[in-house]
Design brief:
Number of domains: 1
Number of strands: 0
Shape: globular
Order of helices and strands: HHHHHHHHHHHHHHHHHH
Number of helices: 18
Radius of gyration: 23 Å
Distance between the termini: 50 Å
Largest sheet: none
Length: 443
Amino acid sequence: METPLLNNGDDSNRLKAENGDYAEVKCISEAATVFKEETIKLWKIAMPLVFNIVCYYATTSLTNIFVGHLWELQLSAISISVSVIYTFTFGFMLGMGSALETLCGQAFGAAQVHMLGIYMQRSWIILLLSSLVLVPIYIFAAPVLKFLGQDPDVANLAGQYTILTLPSVFSLAISFPTQKFLQAQSKVDVMAWIGFIVLIEHAVLLWLFISVMGWGLRGAAAAFNITEWVTAIAQVVYVFGWCKNSWKGFSWAAFNEMWAFVRLSISSAVMLCLEIWYVMSLPLLAGHLPNAVIIIGSLSICMNVNELQLMIFVGINTAVSKELQQAVSKLAWFLGVTMVLNSVQPVISGIAVGLGWQATVANINLACYYAFGIPLGYILGYVAHFGVMGIWGGMIAGIFLQTLILLFILYRTNWSKEVEETSSRMQKWGGQDISTHKVGDDI
């Protein structure tokens, strides 16, 4: 039965149904009105998040700019450390924390706001323990990079930088769950402000430690550690002070049904790690090509521009040699194709996380990225002798295939059935029936 329209003379309200959804639109003007309203709502939430992400990735680009003034070897060392070791860590920790995105989003939608704080505490515990697993990778970064076939000079310098950035790993265990906690409640403006302030702070620290005090890579590592911890602490302070409805204090309930939460966290980690580590394999494969220092440096610039998209390309390019600029120009059209795909693929992955499809997407990523994209890139790069352009082209093909498959799955999805299954997912992965939970076990 069609829901009656509300008609009070306003086109916007007339299109609204009694249950808050839009009724059936019957003409182009009504469709345009709905599109305009939903676009405004979307950007009110999306713009602060986009700004925060840009600020976060800009810290890496600023580091490359300052280090790029030192020498090409230092730039390549930081690039390989960030692209391999930190990306490995980032993917693992973000994936483990993404279980919170599913549960917090569904709990907030079910008006069980008090559960958000408990879920966040549970995620803190799991990610802090997970951080310990990553410590040996940081300590033995240089041997690992050499084992993967990287240039010894680059690997040794990258290993030194990686060990110095070890404190930042534990900050991710705090900041990632806190971000998901805030995002679920659409408290995104504060995240944007924190991101902006931290970006300014990072630029000042880089200038002070590298340009003024001359600490080189040690200064870059120190600035990075401080920036990561300032971000985590600022977010936690906001949660403790201004999120009274969703933060009820520390609770023993965070330890209940921990294994159910771990299982979802592992599924999320596998899904996102396969996606993020796929990009990590690009500089790894390119590191075996001749003139690896220049190739890795040029890839670093392209990957940073791809992540930021709003940063000025010339501003990054002026930090490096003329030789590197020519290498970047050859890869620029690959960068353009990747940016187009990146405008679609993250949206689809976000829907999958919200619906709890992590395991399904993990299998798709494994097939498209590692069974198709990387082998194709290797064949084009080394067998067909297209070099780094062939490697990147093969990987783009993997992303394109993954995007097509996910679009097809979304097209065939029964959304009514997904809504019905939300409660059962929350009970299974949350470790308890949230409808009967009472906040009586707080410490």
